[in-house]
């Protein structure tokens, strides 16, 4: 019954897309997922894409939803979203992924941590530290620093930040999240070869026909991030 219901809704969306094309006006609804804790610059680009789309001949209801990457992929697979922006696993064969932008990740410690005043901590120094298990489960294998024991785990960036600010743990954070705390003297990015970048991508379900509105919005997003 559930599968049949999903097929029915998919058929309705396809019909809407065909009808709007005939009317030369974009209609229907768009449900778009966003990763949490995006930078101001990224949000500005998304805003520009929305502005571009609104200047088209359209009457589309847009819903934005913020969630963790695994949740965004799940919602795409279950037809609860048409598009999503995040740092995805890339392993879902039912989804198409297009690169949008890169985000820099750095390894941080808090003011009370023993390495805060250490000029150049060695790999052995880091190995003796307790780390926060990185909230970005899909990219943990890309983290240059894999050592140390861990008694701290968190899915959200805010929780990881709290662990690191405690002075008891080292952990990775997006640079734009940590920078205000660095400027206030509460965090320090550890020098060395510990930085890496994460690629954020635009994802959609490849098995479901995209409406004209979805195609147009995806084009506007790609244009906004391509400038």
From TrEMBL:
Superkingdom field: Bacteria
Which Gene Ontology terms cover its molecular function? transcription cis-regulatory region binding
What sequence ranges are listed for the domain LysR substrate-binding?
26-225
Q: Which UniProt keywords apply?
A: Transcription, Transcription regulation
User: Where do the TM regions start and end?
Assistant: none
**GO biological process, alphabetically ordered:** regulation of DNA-templated transcription
Q: Which family does it belong to?
A: Belongs to the LysR transcriptional regulatory family.
| PANTHER family reported for this sequence | HTH-TYPE TRANSCRIPTIONAL ACTIVATOR BAUR (PTHR30126:SF98), HTH-TYPE TRANSCRIPTIONAL REGULATOR (PTHR30126)
Q: What is this protein called?
A: LysR family transcriptional regulator
Q: Which organism is it from?
A: Ectopseudomonas oleovorans (Pseudomonas oleovorans)
Q: What is the lineage of its organism?
A: Bacteria, Pseudomonadati, Pseudomonadota, Gammaproteobacteria, Pseudomonadales
